[in-house]
């Protein structure tokens, strides 16, 4: 029993973390048809920005609770800047190209950003554990969990709700759905697709930096974290079906629970199981669990 | 007359939408069958089902008395049924010559050789002869993307004919072709078909083309065959006039918008 | 034999002879470049069919581990036997995975092949018997019981690499002209038409996938023999990304593209790393963008343009 609860809790925590990363990736793909490899770098930039600013803030002797606001501010600020830079400065010149070409373009951006991060923050690790420990721990049937991790589940759920609400219950969201459904018709109907793209990309980037900033207190922030994360996020969104928020949620839950089951039962398979699940899902549902239908060709 | 293709109670639904229902059609050797019907009447669905691209929801398809239900387009093609497409299906970033060479290369037995070159003096000669037959030899070195619509349509049909089909299914061969060129295109195709002895079924919107080339006519309406018989008879059928051709049959609507 | 083939073989002999006088570091670097060139030659077959595999590292790594493991457990140091084993193992694995992969296209093919490569990475990282993330050392190989130039010399692996690249290069060159090669172009351009021409698209892709796996395995085997050390990083997705990068840089229009691309790549890396280790990836990324924008057919298209101008 204890094992099951431990597996579920760990799985949920891991899944909410995965969802945070995958949400931005799948949103950008759904609207723009770009599988954004640089999303891993956005995550890393968010983590670096969060960790370094929190360190700076706490070194100044300000009240420690403010560190959460600093994290949030760092995520939003860095996300908007990097999102605008990448989209306005580069991607918009590439629209209309093949999806595979766009993967390569964002791969190039990932490579560049990896070194930009090293140049900006150096290669030494950053630690900003205070926000993590400040919240204390909770005992649950004899198991101890960091309240920060538990909060992560609620934050992730709120983000999921916000995205759903934004897409389905607001005017802008409905316009965005029109763009997702049929870009050309949407443009024909007078929707400003270019601006939709920019806004979507920035929101996606902020989701990425937000995921990074939230993760930063729990890890040591060092070079390469983005490279590791992007491939996990791919597995999540591909399992769920590219471009679907509900798919990202399902994918995150599947991967999260599968990994935590593996960690508790058979730790050797930890990494294997993630991609194993992905392979199995794709073998039976080639387009992922919640795929977007394609039109007749002939 | 021997029947080549015979469909029995062929039907296809897309969810709640009925694209085809209870289609019983027989095509005999040597026939030139025209097909008319408004958009969404089930013409392309019919061709897609016969050639194995789209599995029917129910019904049976026979080719020379044997069921070809469940076969892939490739198997159907090898059996002797070839088709053309409403939008020409070609290799756009390759030259016309390469398109034809590939078509011939794919056809040969043990066609997928790893090391023997595809382009040699003999195969190029063969391709030139084919293109001359269709009157498009001058385009041989051109990239397909640069070709005018009519040439693409001809090339599409030429590639289908390389398979030496017993039945050729043409999906709107003249759509997107300038009015003045329609008859020339059809003359070329019919000449090639006659020399190979294939039976033909062709979907067409232009009633003049139908009147001139088809010996038998099928009228589709709402996924069903509304009328089937000698062309003149079907064209004067009251139901066909009402539901398919409308009342402007005599005007023969040459201003039909082109399908991309 | 064609003139081109004779010229190529002459070039290979010259390259072998040059190996005798080249400094060791250069020989070593060229060996690694040629081994990668083999992987990219295989990738070229897939890319010409419009399929970008972000998972060739799977076979690159498997080939290398075959050499290492067989060297340890089968007590053989015969380089040719080890290479053969690596290729057979890769083709066997590809025969299974390929059945699944040949149903996928575009980004799904890319992501799915990447997933399989990451599965191998995940297994190797957790397998302490093979040194987990550190990998392990490969025993120095022999060629018919003999080590040309002494055990520490990179000569033998270099020789094997030159011979393998020449052989595979001639094969690919002929392959691209064959119906099977054209079938790849045809699939990239229009799959529907290919099916209606009576050819199985999946079968064509499957064969290409097997060939690509064999070449990647051979490349991995030679890398293991040359470097004397292997680790799971070979299966990590960034390694596969490198292969895609090299293919784009060299160009997929000609069999020489991947070889040229991988030599430039290794040279670039060696120097960029020495001069400025923290901007190496930035240089790569910028180069990749520049190639996509301004040289979509790769460096080889420049060579072709120049030779055409000379001929004219």
UniProtKB/TrEMBL annotation, chain A:
Keywords: Amino-acid transport, Cell membrane, Membrane, Transmembrane, Transmembrane helix, Transport. It comes from the Bacteria. The keyword Transmembrane helix applies. The chain crosses the membrane at residues 12-30, 42-59, 65-87, 99-123, 143-165, 186-213, 219-239, 272-293. InterPro entries: ABC_transp_permease, BCAA_transport_permease. One of its GO terms (cellular component) is plasma membrane. One of its GO terms (molecular function) is transmembrane transporter activity. It is a multi-pass membrane protein. Its main location: membrane. The keyword Transmembrane applies. GO terms for biological process: amino acid transport. Belongs to the binding-protein-dependent transport system permease family. LivHM subfamily. This is Amino acid/amide ABC transporter membrane protein 1, HAAT family. The lineage of its organism: Bacteria, Pseudomonadati, Pseudomonadota, Gammaproteobacteria, Oceanospirillales.
From TrEMBL, chain B:
InterPro entries: AAA+_ATPase (IPR003593), ABC_AA/LPS_Transport (IPR051120), ABC_transporter-like_ATP-bd (IPR003439), P-loop_NTPase (IPR027417). The keyword Phosphoprotein does not apply. PROSITE patterns: ABC_TRANSPORTER_2 (PS50893). SMART domains: AAA. It comes from the Bacteria. GO terms for biological process: D-alanine transmembrane transport; L-alanine transport; L-isoleucine import across plasma membrane; L-valine import across plasma membrane. It holds the Pfam family ABC_tran. Residues 5-247 form the ABC transporter domain. One of its GO terms (cellular component) is plasma membrane. The keyword Nucleotide-binding applies. Keywords: ATP-binding, Nucleotide-binding, Transport. GO terms for molecular function: ATP binding; ATP hydrolysis activity; L-isoleucine transmembrane transporter activity; L-phenylalanine transmembrane transporter activity; L-valine transmembrane transporter activity. This is Amino acid/amide ABC transporter ATP-binding protein 1, HAAT family. It comes from Neptunomonas antarctica.
UniProtKB/TrEMBL annotation, chain C:
The chain crosses the membrane at residues 27-46, 58-74, 80-100, 107-124, 155-176, 209-230, 242-265, 277-295. The keyword Calcium does not apply. Its main location: membrane. It is found in: Cell inner membrane. It is a multi-pass membrane protein. One of its GO terms (cellular component) is plasma membrane. Keywords: Cell membrane, Membrane, Transmembrane, Transmembrane helix. GO terms for molecular function: branched-chain amino acid transmembrane transporter activity. The keyword DNA damage does not apply. This is Amino acid/amide ABC transporter membrane protein 2, HAAT family. The lineage of its organism: Bacteria, Pseudomonadati, Pseudomonadota, Gammaproteobacteria, Oceanospirillales.
